[in-house]
Write a structure and sequence with these properties.
With 551 residues, the chain is an alpha/beta fold. It contains 12 helices and 25 strands. The longest helix is centred in the N-terminal third of the chain and has 16 residues, at 37-52. The protein binds one RNA strand of 74 nucleotides through α5, β6, α7, α12 and β19.
RNA sequence: UGGGACGUCGUUCAACGGUAGGACAGCAGACUCUGACUCUGCUUAUUGGGGUUCGAAUCCCUGCGUCCCAGCCA
């Protein structure tokens, strides 16, 4: 079992009997956007801790801000959590909005205890009264309203007697606190807005700082794991747990969120990319969203493995996106069947191969997994190879095809290049080659070695396909750093559509989401835009390539 | 300049007073019908300065650096 400082705390708490040996966590997304790889880290932690300690983990939507939330997001989150392989406790997911009535009663309780009051300051005035980081705030003139008056005002807030922003409910703590979050934080605000679950039942909505600790307590969460930016909110979290009547005392523990090189992770920026159409949607394969990674061809296992590798700590971190790529490669190498596809075709004519003849080569589907079986791949007189695999005037370390040179066509024959045919513009249009009939299957009976093995597709049998090559969405390591405009730092080459790819027949009519390795090129996944007549493949990730001379 | 947190190979996680270790990346080699995979080897780190101790990444003091907080967002 992987360990980290949080699991150490849980272990210690279990040893001391702090929560009666019980472990309960929760994953609390706000349905205001799609989940991304950073959420995957949080899920692996929360569901993982629950699993490791035989505890429970709730999925709870933190749906306390109706103006930003939507059922579309709820549905996508449910799908992503499930796809990643996590199962929440309770049959149905939980919603903070289901607790609105109870939360309201807790607010009434706090008012009754003289610990909360209705403030009539405007937002601007409140900001002034709050003071600054270095100067204390001052009390609102409404701070000392009587309990009865506060109760009446709060009831009328709920009843809809005031417009948005006219009143707020505030905790009465300390306007001089060095922690700004403790300077009478807002607990409830008025929003005459339609909520995606409660409809128009409410026009006051609890703030995160109020709803979160109380919801945790209601669900008897033992360890409330959240990211570092909530550290300064913990005193308020504890204050609410201490002063409201709640059935449990959860403990908030903060860890560092995930950052990835060459990507943005903030929901605000991801939303902007989608809204302004810089990407095709939340599930654009270049997005760090779970749905984007899924469409790109990532597996849940690869993502979970990645989360294991990066660990959990309190120090701010920026993970090399190369580690994510390593994790998919490693997983896909084991499970993806192999096939041949030519992205940029260059025709070869085998002069000594009989015209009109073809044969079916028996090819293994996975070199390391015999159970994957074999398939027949058609071979004929005219075939396509990759344009990159031929050079008329090859440099020193170029092992592939060149005039007069012999290479192997994978699983087929050894062929020798006799001539490069050019058009009037001097461009190579096709290669004239000969094959050695004695090398069927790719083995030379005389034991001679060739340095290169090329992938190929029979021209007559090839299926036309579109292949989408993805690269990092941003061209700088830390987009938006400093005063930089992250949009200006987008990589103009993050998507390259290859329209004229030729793929072997077995690659036609594969279901969307199917993953395959195109030999020597990389891992690809069938896109949802794919049709039987015209398959579309997304490149998940390239194969590692130690040939560096290409430039 | 108030408060809170964090500083260990290029990146990241570990070492919990007793040999600074792993992963990724990088480099070199072996193998190979994928320049993939696999295998072998190598390079590189404790934020500075004091102190405590037989012994400090770890404890104490003091600098320095980075991040978070002044939403009726989460």
């Amino acid at each position: 079992m992987s360990s980290d400082f949080i699991r150490e705390i849980v272990t210690a708490d279990n040893a001391s009997g702090k929560h009666g040996g019980r472990v309960a966590t929760r994953f609390p997304p706000e349905p205001n956007g799609y989940l991304h790889i950073g959420h995957a880290k949080a899920m692996c932690l929360n569901f993982g801790v629950a699993r490791d300690f035989s505890g429970t983990c709730n999925l709870r939507f933190d749906d306390t801000n109706p103006v930003k939330e939507d059922v579309e997001y709820v549905e996508s989150i449910l799908e992503d959590v499930t796809w990643l392989g996590f199962k929440w406790d309770h049959d149905a997911p939980l919603y903070a909005s289901d607790y609105f009535e109870w939360l309201y009663e807790r607010a009434v309780e706090l008012i009754g205890k003289g610990l909360a009051y209705v403030d009539s300051l405007t937002a601007d005035e409140m900001r002034e009264y709050r003071g600054t980081l270095t100067a204390p705030g001052k009390n609102s003139p409404y701070r000392d309203r009587s309990v009865d008056e506060n109760l009446d005002l709060f009831r009328r807030m709920r009843a809809g007697e005031f417009p948005d922003g006219a009143q707020v409910l505030r905790a009465k703590i300390d306007m001089a606190s060095p922690n700004i979050n403790m300077r009478d934080p807002v607990l409830y605000r008025i929003r005459h807005a339609h909520h995606h679950r409660t409809g128009d039942a409410w026009c006051i909505y609890p703030m995160y700082d109020y709803a979160h600790p109380l919801s945790d307590a209601l669900e008897k969460i033992t360890h409330s794991l959240c990211t570092l930016e909530y550290e300064a909110h913990r005193p308020l979290y504890d204050w609410l747990i201490a002063h409201a009547t709640v059935p449990a005392s959860p403990q908030q523990i903060e860890f560092a969120r995930l950052n990835l090189t060459y990507t943005v992770m903030s929901k605000r920026k991801l939303l902007q990319l989608v809204n302004e159409k810089h990407v095709s949607g939340w599930d654009d394969p270049r997005m760090p969203t779970i749905s984007g990674l899924r469409r790109r061809g990532f597996t849940p296992e690869a993502i979970r493995r990645f989360c294991d590798e990066i660990g959990v700590a309190k120090r701010e971190n920026v993970i090399d996106v190369g580690l994510l790529e390593f994790c998919v490669r490693e997983d896909l190498n084991k499970r993806a069947p192999r096939a041949m596809a030519v992205l940029r075709p260059l025709k070869i004519v085998l002069e000594n191969y009989p015209e009109g003849q073809s044969e079916a080569m028996e090819v293994v589907n996975h070199p390391d997994d015999p159970s994957a079986g074999t398939r027949k791949v058609p071979f004929s007189r005219e075939i396509y190879i990759e344009r990159d695999d031929f050079l008329e005037d090859p440099p020193k370390k170029f092992f592939r095809l060149a005039p007069g040179r012999e290479v192997r066509l994978r699983n087929a024959y050894l062929v020798t290049c006799r001539e490069a045919v050019k058009n009037a513009a001097g461009e190579i249009t096709e290669l004239r080659c000969t094959y050695d009939p004695a090398t069927r299957g790719g083995d030379a009976p005389d034991g001679r070695k060739v340095k290169a093995t090329l992938h190929w597709v029979s021209a007559a049998h090839a299926v036309d396909a579109e292949v989408r090559l993805y690269d990092r969405l941003f061209s700088v390591e830390n987009p938006g750093a400093g005063d930089a405009d992250f949009l200006a730092q987008m990589n103009p080459h993050s998507l390259e559509r290859v329209a004229g790819a030729k793929v072997e027949p077995s690659l036609a009519a594969r279901p969307a989401g199917d993953r395959v390795q195109f030999e020597r090129l990389g891992y690809f996944a069938v896109d949802k835009d794919s049709t039987a007549a015209r398959p579309v493949f997304n490149r998940t990730v390239t194969l590692k390539d130690s040939y560096q001379v290409r430039g």
